[in-house]
Amino acid sequence: MSEDSALRSRSSKKGDINQNGHLQNKNEKKKWVDMSFLPRESPLTVLLSTSLHIRAIYHIFIAILIILMMDTFMYDFVEFGKIKLGVYPVIYGFGDIGRCGRLWLFELALALAFYPGLRVYGLGARVLRKHTAPAPPRRPPSPRVLSAAWSTLGAAALAALLGALLGVPSWDLGRRHLALASGCIVTLEMIRFAMKIYAVTVACVPRCHAAGGTPLPSFRHYLYFLFAPTLLYRDKYPRTEKTRWGVVALHLLEVVAIIFYNSFLWERFILPYWSDYGKEPQVQLGRVVQAMFACVLPSIISFLCGFYCVLHAWLNAFAEMLTFADRLFYEEWWTMSEYSKYYRAWNRVVYAWLRDHIYIPLVPRAGRSLATLSVFLISAVFHELVLALSFGFFYPVLLVMFGVFGLLCVPLTATCGRLFPGVFNLVMWLTLMVGNGLLWSLYPMEYFARKNCPASPGDSFFVPKSWSCPEIVMKSNWTFNNPFTF
C-alpha cells in the first residue's frame, strides 16, 4: 500500500479525503490536508516504546558500547600505560573546529542573505506587474521586456548566491584540508543550505509574479525553515504543543554516545589494519583481503550507528526543540527486499527533495528512466563531493558503488524482491555488509597511503595513491593446494 493510500485509509475513520486532498467530515467544513507532512513519530520511537524485543536490541547495543569501553580501557592501560577511551580519534576528527565554525557562519550568512534578496525581487516583480499593459507601437521599452529582464536578473543573482555557497567552502577545503569530521560538517551544511534555498525559490518565486497570490513568508518562518528537519518548504507545518527538553537531552546524549561508539570501533577494529598501510614498500595480497573481511562487521555496525545518530537522534532532537510534529525521517528500510523501496525509505528527508525538485520536473520532459538515472547520478555526485572534500582526495568508490551498482540493483530486485521478500531481504543485507566493508577499507587505504607513502611528482588530488604505493604482491611461496587432500 502506498503512503497516500495508507493515509487515506487511516483518515477514513474521521472523514474522507477526496482526490483534491480535502478532508471531509460530517461535523466540520472542508480543509486542506498536506499529504507530505502529518503529526507522526519516527518508526524506531514507536518500536522502542511498544516492542520489548526492539528495546532489548537497543539495550544490546548499549551493552556492546560498554564492553568496547572496557576493552579499550584495559588494552590502553596494559599496552601503553594510559587511558584513551577513544578520545583521540574524536579530537583528531573534529580538529580545527574554529575554522569549521567560520566556514559554517559564512554559509549561514549567505543563506540568510537570500531572504532580503527574495523580498527585493518580489517588490520589483510587483511593481512591474502593476505597470504591465499592452505597449503601443514604437514605445520602448515594453513592460513585458522589463519583466523578463527582471526575472533573468533574479535567476543570475540566485545562481551567484548558490555558486558562492557551494564554491567558496569547496575552494577553501581544496586549498587546505580540514579534519574529517569538521570537513563533513562544512560540506553537508553547504549542501543542506543550498537545497533549502532552492526549495524556497521554487515555492515563492511564482508568488512574486501572481496577482493577489499567497504572500511571501516572514523572516521568522524562513529562519524556522532553515533549521527545521525537512528540505521541503511549506508555509505551515504540523507542530507539537510544547518542547520536551528531557527528550532533547536524551537524543543529544545518544548523539555524543554514538560518536564515541564509532570512535571505539575505528580505533580497535578498523585503524589497526590500515594505519601502517604504505609504510612498507610491499604488502601481501592475503593481508589486504583478510583486513577487508575483518572490517565488514565493524563497518556495518558503524553504518547502523551513523544512521541512528543522524536520521533518528539528531533530527528528532531538532524536531523536538522546534516543535516539528512530523518525525517520519525514515521508514522501516531494514525490512525491505527491493532496492527501489530501500532508497525511498532510508532517508525520506533527502528523498522527498529529490522527488519534488528533480524527479517530478524531469519526468514529463525526459521520461521516468532518464529522470531516475538523473536522480541517482546527482545524489552520487554530491555524496562523493562530501567525501572528497572531507578526506582531501578524490577516490570515487562510493560514486561507482551507488551510481552504478546501486542503480543496477533497482531493476534486478524489482520483481524478485516482491516474489521472494525473505530471500532478497537477506540479499540486501549481504550487499550492504559487503559494500560497507569495501568503503570502510578502501577509503582508509587511500588515506593512509597518502599519509605514509613518500611524496612523488605524480601525486594528485584526483589520482589514487594506493594504486601505486605500496605494491600489492602475492606470497612468495604461494601455491594452490587441493583442499580435499589430507
From TrEMBL:
What are the subcellular locations of this protein?
Endoplasmic reticulum membrane
Instruction: List every stretch annotated Disordered.
Output: 1-22
Task: Give GO terms: molecular function aspect only.
Answer: O-acyltransferase activity
Q: Name one GO cellular component term.
A: endoplasmic reticulum membrane
Q: Which InterPro entries match?
A: MBOAT_fam (IPR004299), Oat_ACAT_DAG_ARE (IPR014371)
Tell me which UniProt keywords the record has, alphabetically: Acyltransferase, Endoplasmic reticulum, Membrane, Transferase, Transmembrane, Transmembrane helix
**UniProt entry tagged with the keyword Transmembrane helix:** yes
List where the protein spans the membrane. 56-75, 103-125, 145-166, 178-198, 245-265, 285-311, 393-414, 426-443
Task: Report the record's Gene Ontology biological process terms.
Answer: cholesterol metabolic process
Which residues are annotated as active site? H383
The annotated topology with respect to the bilayer is:
Multi-pass membrane protein
Family under the similarity heading: Belongs to the membrane-bound acyltransferase family. Sterol o-acyltransferase subfamily.
The identity of this protein, by name, is O-acyltransferase
